[in-house]
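User: Could you check the structure of this?
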Amino acid sequence: MIDRRALWIFIAAFLAITGASIWQLSLLPDWRHMPLGGPGSHNTVSGLVLFAAPASLLFCWISPLIQWLALPKETLPSLRRWSGKWIVSMSVFMALLQAFVLTRSLGLVSPSNLDIARGGAVMIGVMFMIIGNIAPKTPVPPQRDDFQLDSWKVSRMLRFGGKLFVGLGLAFVLGGILLPLEYWQAVFLCLMLAALTAAIWYSIKLRHERLVAIAPGRS
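Assistant: Sure, the predicted structure tokens are below.
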């Protein structure tokens, strides 16, 4: 389904973060209370949170698999290229995220709450940019319904959505680093609403173009 290099990177990342999670869980006196801020911290969560990254990475592998089973054969070569880039990107991202969770719970790093909030915003931004760079390369199956967009217009929609995600990601990264914390909620909410509005507008625009194109043939 995916190229061999991407598959080995996924396997290595999945085994590494799963093994690290099991090891960290074995060190806890009570798995139901894992200290977030290092040994002795009173801020605790369930130790099962350590398995969020392996579960998310596994889901990222299942998503291309579902597409592989559903898409027609002519789209499989592009799906192979797309799924390889997607899985490699998510493997690296999840490995870095898990490394941060483990080092913080072990007390190797002790960032302040503000640093954690800023780091979280930056990570969200990086995730958005990953999605934005990969979304335009998503394989598009041929459309046979007259009321659906043709493959070229779907590709245009994906490219537009990719630009929106990259722009949002960059805004989250810069906002997380530069903006005061009290402005985050309003600014990030406005950015999300603006991106959603732009996506809806562009979708309506493409469907209007489709209706205009098929109207003469039906008259």
